[in-house]
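Supplementary notes for students who missed Thursday's class. We covered one full example, reproduced here. Read the sequence, then the structure, then the short commentary at the end.
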Amino acid sequence: MEHPYLFFVKIFEAIGLGHFAHTYPHVVYSWVLMAILIIAGAIATKTISMIPGKAQNLFEVIVLGIEEFMVETAGEEARWLFPLAATIFLYIFIGNRLQQRFSVSKYVASITRTSASRATSNRLSVLPESPT
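Structure (token representation):
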């Protein structure tokens, strides 16, 4: 299945990894998504100060609110899990937004959809048939 926006695959072809990019486009787009998240994190943490500005204050309120919600729900021992859960959430959320908004790749978003549809179809196939 060919995707209309293969500029990342073209970049890999230019550096000699074209076969890999054509065989595993979902891996290429996942790497691009990870690079976007890493660069965004580096830019966001570059201007952190002890006296927060408006944007830093807003993000601190959001992050602390979500962290406290998670601790209230799962208990104090789950506080260490928040960075992992937030990272996974951001990866899936931004991957889906890229797929919807820019049609970057359906491969990034298909990871979660495939898992969800398999789980649903497995549950439905186990249900007993109703008598007719």
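Commentary. The chain has one domain: 7-112. The mean pLDDT is 76. If anything here is unclear, bring it to office hours.
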